[in-house]
Amino acid sequence: MKIKHILGGINWGVIILIAFGGMMLFQSVPEDIIALKPAVSFEDMLDEGVEVKAGAHVSGKVPYVFDAFASEETYTRYSDGSRSGSKASGAYYLVPTAEAFIAMKGRQADVGILDDLIDETWDYMETGIQPKTEFSMEGKTEVLEGQLARYFKEYLMDLGYTEAELEEMGDPLVVRTVNFTACWVMTAIGLVLVLLGVLLFRRGYRVAKYGSGLSRAEDLPDVPVHNAARPFDGADD
Is residue 185 within 8 Å of residue 152, measured between CB atoms? Predict the structure, then answer.
């Protein structure tokens, strides 16, 4: 396999197809792996002995939600250093587990129903009446980092936890919503793009190595030229 043949198979079409397909696979395959794992529900987390780690597949009804400990906003940063107005994009909530709490990222569209569930959770703590609001989600667990982790720990300290107890809990986790169906679709599209890129490269490589298979004009054999017969101009009709 010579370098010139390999270079002959590479063109912008090959590069674009494999690059875009590769990026899509890079983003979607890790989520597909999580989707294949058995799902842990929020109700399972309330059972003793159920340990949840980063990278777990979480799915099901959220029975109880405590207060939001952080909100999230998005904005656009322009090239001149200015920025657009902030737009609310969700909030982070405390969800109880058998051990302590886990964070949950709620989308902005779900803030209203989660606020209702918060009120009903606190009512349950006082009256024992189970919440009626139903909210379900599916996603994955990640390690909570940066300011969000600090807000999470500060809220737990306000609830009475000590720094030593927080250290024993280890890194806080957050459950984020993931559309696994969209991830499978992205994986399929990525595979198709990569496959097309490989086939296009293979075609270019074979042309560079063996030629196109079409004979050049100088390689064609000499063939006598035959003129089509036609009536003599002076012939009678």
Answer: no
CA distance 170 to 1: 53
* pTM recorded for the entire structure: 0.75
205, 5 contact by CB (below 8 A): yes
Angle at the Cα of 67 from the Cα atoms of 44 and 57, rounded to 5 degrees? 30
Rounded to whole angstroms, the Cα distance separating 139 from 148 reads 18
Q: Look at 232 and 89; give whichever has higher pLDDT.
A: 89
Contact 8, 208 (CB under 8 A): yes
Nearest CA-CA partner of 8 in 226, 209, 155, 212: 209
> Do residues 47 and 70 touch, judged by C-beta distance below 8 A?
no
Quick check: 187 and 27 in contact, CB under 8 A? no
E strand spans, 21-156: 57-61, 68-74, 87-96, 101-107, 136-143
Both tokens of 60, joined, read 């099901």
pLDDT at 150: 92
The total number of residues written for the chain in this structure? 237
Q: What is the arrangement of strands in the sheet containing 173-177, beginning at the earlier edge strand?
A: 57-61, 136-143, 173-177, 101-107, 87-96, 68-74
